[in-house]
Amino acid sequence: MALEVKKLGVIGAGQMGLGIALVAAQKAGVPVTLVDNSQTSLDKGMKFADKLLEKDVSKSRITQEMAKETKSRLNPTTKMEDLSDVDFVIEAVPEIPDLKTSIFAQLAQICPPHTILATNTSSISITKLAAATTKDPTDTSVSSRVISTHFMNPVPVQKGVEIISGLQTSQSTVDAALELCKRMGKVPSISADSPGFLANRILMPYINEAIICLETGVGQKEDIDNIMKNGTNVPMGPLQLADFIGLDTCLAIMETLHQGLGDSKYRPAVLLRQMVDAGWLGKKSGKGFYDY
Ligand code: NAD
């Protein structure tokens, strides 16, 4: 039987961490210790949680009482030590390899010996993060409990989540991650620890190819987006989607695929790199393939 998660820890109260904490508190009904090293980020995150819950109440998706209960399950803190009693922790700090490895090394010290240590990384190897939990690679007592639960953005809306094992990850860790994700109302897919995992391995070359079609004049941006939108029944075309994800993020993921897999078919589009150089990063910077 999979480990029952009675208390969850989430590290990072940003875009992803806050979403993960809120969905866990609301759908799975678990108390969540939400850690961020910035009080400002915690305050901002909790305010955003209020806004999302108010919206759910106004649309009659939940009652005022349910919103209050959900909020009471979120326990914000700036202290990593407060994770000493959680059964499962999900790390969602920025995508900086050294930062993540140092957090996993700290978790190995702080958390009890049954706690599952999960990451929400978009591109870093799970095997590498697991290795950071120990000085003796043959001792897998902690590294076997490291896994990735890669949620999709925005977490309250997107049902998909990738479960990624490192070389060291045990089956009981996979089972616990699957169980928690299902309790959160998500539909998990299992992926191997390979660059881009499944979602980005498929999505980013699709976006990159759309950019190559634009740069080589195969089609105008509206035509590229319209044919995919109306031809494959997706809510937005690849160029608009790239603007929403952030062109810097798209470039970073293509570089990970290109370097990690060593195949020229993953070469980032020249235009993608130029747009990032120009500071045209999409929606967040006000200009990308479209103006915002
Ligand atoms: P974000 O920048 O919105 O949030 C990161 C949070 O971590 C911030 O609140 C920051 O204050 C906090 N933080 C920084 N250092 C910390 C530390 N040492 N201890 C505790 N908190 C710390 O980032 P995000 O977009 O939520 O991304 C988080 C992770 O999720 C990244 O690994 C990213 O690759 C991954 N991811 C992002 C998306 C996306 O679309 N944004 C999708 C899937 C996965």
Number of strands: 8
Which CATH class of the largest domain applies here? Alpha Beta
User: In angstroms, what separates the terminal alpha carbons?
Assistant: 49 Å
Q: Number of helix segments?
A: 11
Count structural domains.
2
Shape: globular
* Whole-number mean pLDDT: 97
- Structure class: alpha/beta
Taken as a percent bin, the fraction of beta residues is: 5-15%
**Biggest sheet character:** 8 strands, mixed
| N to C succession of SSEs | EHEHHEEHEHEEHEHHHHH
Question: How large is the radius of gyration?
Answer: 20 Å
Describe this structure in words.
This protein has 292 residues and is an alpha/beta fold. The protein has two domains: 8-192, NAD(P)-binding Rossmann-like Domain (Rossmann fold); 200-285, N-(1-d-carboxylethyl)-l-norvaline Dehydrogenase, domain 2 (Orthogonal Bundle). It is built from eleven helices and eight strands. The protein has helices at 15-28, 39-58, 64-72, 97-110, 126-131, 171-183, 199-215, 221-232, 238-245, 247-261, 270-278, and strands at residues 8-11, 32-35, 74-77, 88-91, 116-119, 146-151, 160-165, 187-191. Strands 3-2-1-4-5-6-7-8 form an eight-stranded mixed β-sheet, with helices on both faces. Helix 1 links the parallel strand 1 (8-11) and strand 2 (32-35). Helix 2 runs antiparallel to helix 3 and helix 10 (247-261) crosses helix 11. The termini are far apart. The model has no long low-confidence stretch (mean pLDDT 97). The structure holds nicotinamide-adenine-dinucleotide. Residues 11-17, 35-38, 41, 92-95, 99, 120-122, 153 line the site of nicotinamide-adenine-dinucleotide (NAD). Nicotinamide-adenine-dinucleotide binds at residues 11-17, 35-38, 41, 92-95, 99, 120-122, 153.
